[in-house]
Amino acid sequence: THQQLGLPSCVVQRMIGRPCPHCGLTTSFCWIARGKFRSAWQANPSGLALAGILVYLVFLSLQVLRRGHWSASNRFGIRVRNAFAIWLILSLLVWLIRLAELIRIDHG
Description:
By secondary structure, this protein is an all-alpha fold. The chain has helices spanning 11-16, 25-33, 37-43, 45-67, 75-107.
């Protein structure tokens, strides 16, 4: 999908011949925008997680705007960091599973 938008192919995939952890994210987001969540999951499950996290962050940002100030201490920043860490871990897990499947297919 990203190549249809004029973006280059994945550098990692060109270099090592295997998809990177984020291959399929653009396609996943395009499917999410169309309401095709199963297709989004197939393109890259971490795309669904990232979309959910972004919705969550928009909600938190709206709370900050409504209050007119940051909430107690730095909870917003901590939540942003934690959400990103969860997404990053999920992305790596999906990538490892996909690599294992590719290796199994290559050697199977």
